[in-house]
Amino acid sequence: MHKPYKIPESVLVVIHSAELDVLLIERADKPGFWQSVTGSKDTDDEALRQTAIREVFEETGIRIADETSPQFQASNFVLAGNLCDWKLSNVYEIYPVWRHRYAPGITRNTEHVFGLRVPREIAIILAPLEHVRHMWLPYREAADKCFSPSNAEAILQLPKYSTPD
């Protein structure tokens, strides 16, 4: 059976600490390719914020929850208020190696940028089929390590969009 095509609209979530250290994850299918959390909408009507919440959990194990959540005390939970839509979008050419995941003729993706502030010591649980390692780096070093130009540019914008404690 044919797997459904990916929707060419996605989120990029820059996960960072209050000190502006950035979490990067290494792709399992492309060793040496470091990035922030990214992922496409599951359905056309999925809200971008919901896509960001889902992708962060799927790729890092971090749960974004309201204060009222009974599990909020767990080591991998953060308040929903820590997820910020930066209101930035990038349109880019989909890398040829990944175009087969999209419907024929789809060559461009629209990526919406979010930031998520977390404690530096938060538990990270990677999805082993997607990512194999993670690291924290100061934001300028993290931008230099990213393979994606739009991801690097988003990370460089972090001081402008991060919120003080």
Short characterization:
This protein is of the alpha/beta class and 165 residues long. Helix content is 19%, strand content 34%.
Features:
165 residues, 9 strands, single chain, alpha/beta, 4 helices, globular
Give your account of this protein's structure.
The protein has 4 helices and 9 strands; from the N terminus they run E-E-E-E-H-E-E-E-E-E-H-H-H. Helix content is 19%, strand content 34%. The radius of gyration is 15 Å and the shape is globular. It is of the alpha/beta class and 165 residues long. A 4-stranded mixed β-sheet has the order 4-1-8-7, with helices on both faces. Strands 3-2-9 form a 3-stranded antiparallel β-sheet. It has a two-stranded parallel ribbon with strand order 5-6.
Using only C-alpha atoms, the radius of gyration works out to: 15 Å
Class by alpha and beta content: alpha/beta
Give me the number of helical elements.
Answer: 4
**Ends apart, CA distance between termini:** 49 Å
Biggest sheet: strands, sense, closure?
Answer: 4 strands, mixed
Annotation, overall tally of beta strands: 9
What is the 3D form? globular
Oligomer: single chain
- Helix proportion: 10-25%
Order of helices and strands: EEEEHEEEEEHHH
In the sheet with the most strands, the strands line up as 4-1-8-7
Mean pLDDT: 92
Low-confidence regions: none
The proportion of strand residues reads 25-35%
